[in-house]
Automatic annotation (TrEMBL):
PANTHER family (alphabetical): LIPID KINASE YEGS, SPHINGOSINE KINASE
DAGKc domain boundaries: 1-135
Database matches in SUPFAM superfamilies: NAD kinase/diacylglycerol kinase-like
Stated name of the protein: DAGKc domain-containing protein
Cofactor(s) in the UniProt record: Mg(2+)
Any one of the GO CC terms: plasma membrane
The keyword Cytoplasm belongs to this UniProt entry's keyword annotation: no
Source species, domain of life: Bacteria
One Gene Ontology term of the molecular function aspect: ATP-dependent diacylglycerol kinase activity
InterPro entries in the cross-refs: ATP-NAD_kinase_N (IPR017438), Diacylglycerol/lipid_kinase (IPR005218), Diacylglycerol_kinase_cat_dom (IPR001206), Lipid_Phosphate_FormReg (IPR050187), NAD/diacylglycerol_kinase_sf (IPR016064), YegS/DAGK_C (IPR045540)
Entry keywords, A to Z: ATP-binding, Kinase, Lipid biosynthesis, Lipid metabolism, Magnesium, Metal-binding, Nucleotide-binding, Phospholipid biosynthesis, Phospholipid metabolism, Transferase
Amino acid sequence: MGQRVALAVHPGSGQGSAARIAGTVAERLRAEVDELTLIAADTPQRFRGLVADCRAAGLDALVVLGGDGAMHQAVQCCAGTEMALGLVPAGTGNDFARALGIPERPGEAVETVLSALRSGRRRVVDVGRADGVASEGTRWFGTVLCTGFDAAVNARANRLPWPSGPRRYDVALLRELVSLRSRPVVVDTDVERVTLEATLVAVGNTAFYGGGVPICPGARPDDGLFDVTVVGRVSRLQLARILPRLRTGAHVRHPAVHTLRASWVRIEHHVAGTPRWPVFADGDALGALPVTVTCVPRALHVLV
């Protein structure tokens, strides 16, 4: 093939499932590429640093064995370059792989990666760029950037040791519902400006977050636009009635939900002294409001 490839294994993906199958995946890749570099780390911080080093290594592809958190770090490396990203899902949510139609089974996903390497086939997709987040500066994201109630759910889900899989988000959601608070925000875009008491704002490059929840059901990763879902001020009871609709995407028809499509979005609090909402993207904490996000068309090559 003449291919130089790195395999990055996230240490905690899928509660250790990635580590258990890493040897098998590496063996399958090594049999068909000219050079395989294995990237493994004992901490997420070390993983982040090793993946970042790949950007200057002249690789043809970076294959990630893990979930959306691992994907998020790989996107920082691959976005805006010719280096292709390969995904072998082995995490809790796997929402980016889901949006791109990548097989859920790791063995099938590896064969998809190898087929794309053999044929030179790539899917070129959009990515989001988040600027001005308080603690992180500029970051790329593949799936959804969120703030408000859903970001709080994400933070809690990341802390829960049980249950595994998408049910973890459901448990976190119920616990956060007890402390629900709306806050005054401005959602400014290239198409309209919305000022309201909001419960959550989600900016979708793809449709899913939280292990398959289509929060932005119309989002597509290759149309040059974000789909934005804004939930206005609602009571706990009203939100509890909206939540069952999330799994089907029917929540966008609720009168408290406002949707729009835009190429850039800025979200900020418009009342001085308001406690700043946290910001998450691809399930990773980025910082806190304000944030400006831009859809960057055709910035990422994916092996599908």
